[in-house]
Amino acid sequence: MTTSVLFDAPGPKTVARHRAYTVVSVVALAALVAFAVWKLYDRSQLEYALWEPYVTPKYIQYVLVDGLLETLKMAFFSIIFAVVIGLFLGIGKLSDRAWIRWPAWLVVEFFRAAPVLLLMVFAFYLLAIGNGPLSPFWCVVIALTLYNGSVLAEVFRAGINAVPTGQSEAAYAIGMRKSQVMTSVLLPQGVKIMLPSIISQMVVALKDTSLGYYILAPGLTAVGKPIYLEFRNQVPTAIVITALYVIVNLILTWIATRVQKRLVGEKNPLELTRVGNLDGGRNT
Question: May I ask the CATH architecture of the domain 49-266?
Answer without folding.
Answer: Orthogonal Bundle (1.10)
